[in-house]
Specification:
The chain is of the alpha/beta class. It has two domains: 70 residues, Ubiquitin-associated (UBA) domain (Helicase, Ruva Protein, domain 3); 206 residues, 3-Layer(aba) Sandwich (Rossmann fold), CATH 3.40.50.150. 43% of the residues lie in helices and 16% in strands. The chain has a seven-stranded mixed beta sheet, sandwiched between helices. A two-stranded antiparallel sheet has the order 1-2. Helix 2 packs across helix 4. The protein is elongated. The chain starts with a helix and ends with a strand.
Length: 290
């Protein structure tokens, strides 16, 4: 029989990254090994530390070993565990959807603060943003759209698990006929749009971590040569359609701020713009106020 301590020490050596970027990375292998083992035996990490001599059942150790092998190949922890914490809730994720990032929680906060009567989450993916908003303002109607049917399957699964019946999921390509028809039928007085669309330049594929490039859906990450192609298309649709909105909140690449501001000014000359920074003090959310 293998003890928790033995299992963790062995796995830590196998998954410890060779590239150390900061001091915290020195213990990353052990940290991830503890997270995976705790998940397998359905305990928290403190239990592992308090019970180093606990003998693992063979079936648990076998499952843990499979997880370690997947992590050695750089598969993200969120996909191995099939879950990601976001805005205080656990969301199911797999390779069909982008892994929700902490920065995207800003979109939830900003939307809630606007007291909308309709929220449209464009490019919903796992549904983390739309469901989080819906759970915080329960009478609110939330429209969540995506071009990916597999992603919408995951989003609907999360809405059911987290009891968010006030989210309507729709397969839609940005502001197409289906999305516009849904919005027009509801005649919102305060429509708030949140969008975490693909915004990375294609060239970023060359230097991003293998965890990201090898496993996460490319279509949800990369927005063309400049990274702004999808966002530009979406904003042009909004402008040309004369859709009335209170706010648009876009998650962006900090390198795009100047270009995006210039683009937004040309499309919405009467609008006001604001930038919100993430915890790293980098430009992260671009606001358009109609």
């Amino acid at each position: 029989m293998t003890t928790t301590k033995q299992a963790i020490l062995k796995a830590a050596k196998q998954i410890q990254p060779n590239k150390i970027i900061c001091v915290a990375d020195k213990g990353l292998g052990r940290f991830e090994a503890e997270i995976l083992l705790a998940y397998v035996i359905k305990k928290d990490r403190s239990y592992l530390l308090a019970h180093p001599d606990y003998e693992l059942p063979a079936i648990s150790y076998k499952r843990f070993s499979r997880f370690v092998e997947r992590r050695k190949k750089h598969e993200p922890m969120a996909y191995i565990k099939n879950e990601r914490d976001f805005y205080g809730r656990k969301f199911f994720v797999d390779k069909r959807v982008l892994i929700p990032r902490p920065e995207s929680e800003m979109l939830v906060e900003l939307a809630i603060n606007e007291k909308p009567d309709l929220v449209w989450d464009v490019g919903t993916g796992s549904g983390a943003i739309s469901i989080s908003i819906a759970k915080e303002i329960k009478p609110l109607t939330v429209l969540a759209t995506d071009t990916s049917s597999p992603a919408l399957t995951i989003a609907r699964k999360n809405a059911k698990r987290l009891k968010a019946p006030n989210v309507t999921f729709l397969k839609s390509d940005l502001l197409d006929r289906g999305a516009r028809s849904f919005i027009d039928r509801r005649k919102p007085k305060r429509l708030v749009i949140v969008a975490n669309l693909p915004y990375l330049p294609n060239k970023d594929k060359q230097h991003l971590d293998q965890d990201v490039v090898k496993y996460e859906p490319v279509s949800a990450l990369f927005g063309g040569p400049s990274g702004l192609e999808v966002i530009k298309k979406f904003l042009k649709q909004i402008s040309e359609s004369e859709l009335k909105f209170a706010r648009i909140f876009l998650e962006i690449d900090p390198r795009q701020t100047k270009k995006l501001r210039t683009l937004a000014k040309s499309l919405f000359p009467k609008a006001k713009f604001k930038i919100y920074k993430d915890l790293s003090k980098r430009d992260r959310i671009f606001e358009i106020k109609d």
